[in-house]
Each structure stands twice: as structure tokens, then as C-alpha cells.
């Protein structure tokens, strides 16, 4: 069976960014996804389309086909008062590199990475961690099969649910420390 839309696909992958392995599947846990439902980057799915179990493919996604370019306006300076919890500033989360879940005025959830902590403010970057990066993938198709009702139930139905915690990218839609760059 070949990878096609609405097929359950399992792949092993290695993502290399700037010459370093940024993420990879575990030997006993391939990445599973329903092809064509928006769970992965479209160009990732396109690269494995038509492949069969055992096929290997290597490909590169430029920023425009991955997570876009870095948007300078997504780096903002916020007053420390934004980080009030129980009447005091949550100093324990205010350090460079800290990933802080936040909501904008419209209720959209996002993750900001702290770039600098100043006496009265905090500089945060709301760009995707892989924005501006060239993504190099080595992928092996492990299996391709028809989707079952159980698959749909475990994936939240037959639609893609948006990744909303911002700290995962492997397509399993669970918060974790994944960075393979698939969710969007």
C-alpha cells in the first residue's frame, strides 16, 4: 500500500537543523499521522506521498515551506506586571530561555520564549522555534494502512486539531519537548 490521503502512515524520521539533530523518532515509536489531514507540514506529507513501507526519502524544507521566516514584530517587550500571579510577579519563570504560555487580546494561545529580563520589562519572542530555519529530513516509511474508527477517536476525530501548547511538534498533539517541526 502506498502513502495517500486519508491513510494511516508511520514513519521514522531524523530532523537536522544547522548541522545538528533537532529531533528524531525513537526506534520503538515511529511518528504516526493520517495523511492529508493537516497534522504535518504540507511539504512533509508531499515528500512521502506515493511511498511504501521500507521506502526512504531525504528532503529539505526551506523556511517558506516550514515555519516561515522570523517576524521581527513577534519579538516584543512586555511589562513585568503581565507576569503577575496571586498578586506578585512570578519571578521563578522569568529567565532567558523560559517558554511561557500566554494569550493575546483575542484569546489566541501561544508560547513566548524569554530573550531578556530587564528591571521593569521582559523581551519575548513569539516566533515559532523553527522559524527562519532550513529543515533537513531523513524519513523511512514504516507502515501504511487504512484508517480505522479507533484511529479517528485517538486523533481527536477526522480533523486536525491545532497544536495549542506550542512546545511540541511531532504530531502527537501532547505537550512535551518535541521539536521535529510537523505541527503548524
Overview features:
single chain, about 180 residues, mainly beta, 5-stranded antiparallel β-sheet, 2 helices, disordered C terminus
Q: What can you see in these coordinates?
A:
This protein has 184 residues and is mainly beta. Helices cover 7% and strands 36% of the residues. It contains two helices and eleven strands. It has helices spanning 42-48, 149-154, and strands at residues 7-17, 20-24, 31-34, 56-61, 75-79, 84-85, 88-89, 99-103, 109-117, 121-125, 135-146. Strands 1, 2, 3, 4 and 11 form a five-stranded antiparallel β-sheet that branches. The chain has a four-stranded antiparallel β-sheet with strand order 5-10-9-8, with no helix packed on it. A two-stranded antiparallel ribbon has the order 6-7. The longest helix is centred in the N-terminal third of the chain and has 7 residues, at 42-48. The chain is elongated, with a radius of gyration of 18 Å. It starts with 6 loop residues before the first strand and ends in a 30-residue tail after the last helix. Mean pLDDT is 85; it is low at 157-184.
